[in-house]
Amino acid sequence: MASLSTSLNMAVQSLGADTAALQMTNNNIANANTPGYTRETAVFQEVSATSGDGMSSGNGVELTGFQSIRDELLQRQIEQETTAQSGANAQQSTLQQIQPAFATTTDDIGTDMSALFSSISSLSTNPTSTSSREAVLTAGQNLATAFNTASNTLTSQQTGLNTQVTQDVSQINQLTKQIAALNPQIAEVNSTGQDAGTLQDQQDALVLKLSALTNVSITQSDGGVTLTTGNGTALVAGSQSFALQTATGSDGMTHVLDQSGNDITKTLTGGDLGGTIQTRDTIIPGLLNQLDTLANQFGKAFNAAQATGYDENGNAGQNFFTVPTTVSGSAGSISMAISDPALIAASSDGTSGSNGNLANLSAVQTNTLPSGQTPGNAYASLVYQVGSLTSNAKAESSATTASLLQLNNQMSSVSGVSIDEESANLITYQQAYEAAARVVSTIQALFTTTMSMGTASAA
Amino acid sequence: MRVTNMVPDMQYAMQQSQQALASAEEQVATGLRVNQLSDDPSASANLTVSLAQSANVDQYTSNVTSLQSQMQMTDSSISSIVTSLNSAVTAGTEGANGSVSSAQRQAIATQVQGLLSSVVAEGNATFSGSYLFGGSEAATPPFVAASTTYTSAKGSATNPLSATTALTAGSVTTISDATTGKTMTFKAKAGDTIAALQAAVASAVSAGTLSAGASATINASGQLAIGTNNSKDGIVVTSNDAALGTMTAAANTSVANAYAYVGNGSVNSVQIGSDLSVATNVPGNQLLGSGSNVIGSLGSLITALQSGTTTDIGNAVSAVTAALKSVSQQRMPLDNTIGELESQDSYLSQEKVTLTSQQTSLVGANLADAATTLSQDELQNSAVMAAAAKVMPQTLLQYLQP
User: Fold this and answer.
1) Is residue A209 within 8 Å of residue A273, measured between CB atoms?
2) Is the CB of B1 less than 8 angstroms away from the CB of A417?
3) Residues of chain B with pLDDT under 50
4) Number of Cβ pairs < 8 A linking chain A and chain B
């Protein structure tokens, strides 16, 4: 049977529920700008009705808990897109620093190559001119230096990325340690049937940071997350994290090893670490190989043309460039083999005034190298390659940024805090609280009336 | 869709707008559409090829300018030679007149000697330090006064050279004959001795390269003596063989009015276009020795004037006339080359303009378009900023305030 006491209890219970909801709203508003925060909603539940005297009456409301509004699928998509974006950014950052070495300036390879052939052509008008011969030597030296500079730019960038690999691995180890530490706490909360809320937010934020470093596979369970690298190397399982290690390989590069000491460098993809490794081990070596091939084949072709003629002293032409026998490292080490202008093999018959062999030297510009291209076209291909790689990395970065913005908007739509919405909730809960308080006040008045009923009759 | 926070969208829109604005400003400021390789990799690659072509065109143009000066100089020298030969024909014709006294003929002979000197001087003309008519032997005067005998520095009465004296492998000995206008070149092989050189001289005489009577012998002083064995044929001998030492003309053996050509017949070519080269020199033996020996004909005219009959003088004048005709013929290809250089100069100027235009279209910004884009991007940027300013302060709380 209904009573004032029952009504009062119901009103007090309602006050408690509304107070908790107001506190939750307050927390949502307070964390409106906190990265990774997932909004919570209050879960109200009707208290079971009681029956008696042929009638059933409600018993008010109770707050069963708070529920974080999550979308795990979106979260995983954001992590994947973050991995892609970081990888593209890592490549773009390095390539942006490489491309000036191949831009047209006063001392790039293309300009210096043209200058060498121009100096040869100029010498052909006066093959005995010492100043013209000096100009050929200077142009040759400039070209060798341009090859050296471009090669050094690539190799120094490559070496510099080793530091990045070490830093990334260190950060990955810190993050996996923190993620593993959260797993048992989340499992404990989940075991009580409660929402892990803040703990889950913290872990999601850490996993997102980890995704920015490398591609990870994530398995979510009540016990927390299990993380592996893309190829299956364990990073986190339960409360345990598995630290990666770094070691200098026989190639002089920093390699990444799993906890057992296996080299997993080649299997790491995506993220800053994956992008850095791909730039260091694939992109830069590819460019270096093209550059070395050009320097080696050009130097040898020029030397071969020089050998078909005679120098100013009537001797058979000797090497103009010093070129390594192997292609690797050619651009970095190509240098002038002669320093005496008289040793330029301009003559085709051994007389000092002949310019017959300069045509052979000039023909190196238009003849096809073993690579199948003329030197100029081979260099143009290299320029295109550098530009294209940089452009693609930029486009990838830009596309993933836009995609990530969209995914974050979707996530925000699901999990983000809307100040407007919370303001409305605030009013709703405030009004509910005020109404419950009014009920308490009303019941108090009724109690007073009831209590004074006997007193009034007696009087 | 539930919208909770518009700040990221606004920030992204502002970044995009500002990047576009910065790019537009850079294009207007630099005048370039492509400021780094990644802006247009294909255009950047094509630019390197185009710039290489431009550098070649610049060099071809420079070559043309240089060659024009050289060709003008060559033409001027040949013109002077033609003038001298014309004067020689006029003087010789006068000397062939039977009414001219002996003294007058001697004076005319002296006049022709002067003309011969002028011809030789023009034959030894230089341009930028190189002899114009020496073929590829550009470092030494191509026309050298001839002597009847040259002797080696090596060899003495006490330590004489002999037919069995070994020569230095790879050494070169040349004998240039003023009468035949030809040069014998002997390159010693390993194991060769002076006997091999003597045999080569004998063969050259048989072949007509050297005048009859020319020989290589060991003289009383134990030296190698290469001579013509008569007083009218002159030679010039050079050798870089250490076993022989320097070959020098023996004292009092010079032959009057005789000059041997010690250059060679090489013709240099210079590229003035991607597929176009021109010959840059006329070898002296071709100019003054082809068909008729110009110097020899003048020498013969001088000798005829000094001691010959009117018939001899007439014949000598005919020889000089033939030589004049030959020289004039040599001038024609040269004039063609000069014309070719002029037309190529004009072509290269156009080619340069074409390439520059190509480069501008590859990487240059169309300033009208760039300025319009800049204006649009400024407008867009302002609109984004205005939208952000209008939207971001909008919250429900604003309206709930009393």
Assistant:
1) no
2) no
3) none
4) 189
| B133–A contact, CB cutoff 8 A | no
**Spatial CA neighbour of A160 closest among A209, A109, A210, A90:** A90
What is the 3 state secondary structure string of chain B? CCCCCCHHHHHHHHHHHHHHHHHHHHHHHHCECCCCHHHCHHHHHHHHHHHHHHHHHHHHHHHHHHHHHHHHHHHHHHHHHHHHHHHHHHHHHHHCCCCCCHHHHHHHHHHHHHHHHHHHHHHCCEECCEECCCCCCCCCCCEEEEECEEEECCCCCCCCCCCCCECCCCCEEEEEECCCCCEEEEECCCCCEHHHHHHHHHHHHHHCCCCCCCEEEECCCCCEEEECCCCCCCEEEEECCCCCCCEEECCCCEEEEEEEECCCCCCCEEEEECCEEEECCCCHHHHHHCCCCHHHHHHHHHHHHHHCCHHHHHHHHHHHHHHHHHHHHHHHHHHHHHHHHHHHHHHHHHHHHHHHHHHHHHHECCHHHHHHHHHHHHHHHHHHHHHHHHHCCCCHHHHHCC
Which chain A residues are closer than 8 Å to B128 by Cβ? 126, 129
Using an 8 Å CB-CB cutoff, list chain B residues near A384: 41-42, 44-45
Interface check B55 vs A, CB under 8 A: yes
Confidence band (pLDDT; 50, 70, 90) for A207? very high
Q: Which residues of A touch B2 (CB under 8 A)?
A: 413-414, 416, 418, 421
Every domain of chain B and the residues it spans: 57-350, 368-402
The helix/strand/coil state of A1 is: coil
pLDDT at A458: 46
pLDDT for position A452: 86
| Residue A333 token pair | 């080490």
Mean pLDDT on A89-108: 93
Provide the ipTM: 0.86
Is A418 close to B136, i.e. CB distance below 8 A?
A: no
Q: Do A387 and B40 touch (CB under 8 A)?
A: yes
- Interchain proximity A99–B37, CB inside 8 Å: yes
Chain A contacts in chain B segment 24-53 (CB below 8 A):
36-42, 44-49, 51-52
Interface contact A380-B130, CB threshold 8 A: no
H-type alpha helices, A127-236: 130-191, 198-213
Q: CA-nearest residue of chain A to B58?
A: A118
Q: Do B37 and A103 touch (CB under 8 A)?
A: yes
Kindly determine whether residue A124 and residue B58, on different chains, have CB atoms separated by under 8 Å.
no
DSSP letters for A333-376? H-EES---GGGS--BSSS-TT--TTHHHHHHTTTSPPTTSS-HH
List chain A residues with CB under 8 Å of B134. 353
Nearest-angstrom CA–CA distance, B64 and A255: 59
Q: Do B47 and A390 touch (CB under 8 A)?
A: no
For B52, the closest of A122, A376, A401 (CB atoms) is: A376
CB-count burial class (<10 Å; 0-12, 13-18, 19+) for A163: exposed
**Domain B57-350: CATH architecture, name and number where available:** Up-down Bundle (1.20)
Chain mean pLDDT for chain A:
92
Query: B176, B260 in Cβ contact below 8 A?
Result: yes
- Output the pLDDT for position B290: 57
Spatial neighbors of A153 by CB under 8 A, at least 6 apart, are A97, A98, A101
pTM equals 0.86
pLDDT band at residue A324, thresholds of 50, 70 and 90? very high
The pLDDT score that the predictor gives to residue A454 is 67
pLDDT tier for residue A459 given thresholds of 50, 70 and 90: very low
Mean pLDDT across A190-195: 80
